[in-house]
Amino acid sequence: MNTEAAEEADRESAVPVINAIEQIGTRWRVNIVYALKNGELRFNDLKRETGASSKTLSEKLDELENNNIIDRRVEKDSPIAVYYYLTSKGNELLHALSALSEWEQNWANRDT
């Protein structure tokens, strides 16, 4: 394989990682995923758990829902209650984030 073809193959193999990082996106999204690791939560519970403002939390919840990482369940009792939870995709992401966290902990205090 020539050098140019090898470089192209390297770029193509990085595409899934880049796509995954784009879906994860921000620290807020990661905080939300971790907050939901033990089950569903309501908006105000997520706000308290993550420290996000209402506006930021609402935006990030919409983004995560659009990426099928979380879903919501609406109870139409009075008052209406909305619960957010991880989808199967979100649970798999949680495992990947745990592996990334372990990697960072292993290497965080090393100079090289």
UniProtKB/TrEMBL annotation:
Entry GO MF terms: DNA binding; DNA-binding transcription factor activity
Domain HTH hxlR-type per the UniProt entry, residue ranges: 15-112
Top-rank taxon, per record: Archaea
InterPro entries: ArsR-like_HTH, HTH_ArsR_DNA-bd_dom, HTH_HxlR, WH-like_DNA-bd_sf, WH_DNA-bd_sf
Keywords tagged on the record: DNA-binding, Transcription, Transcription regulation
Listed name of the protein: HxlR family transcriptional regulator
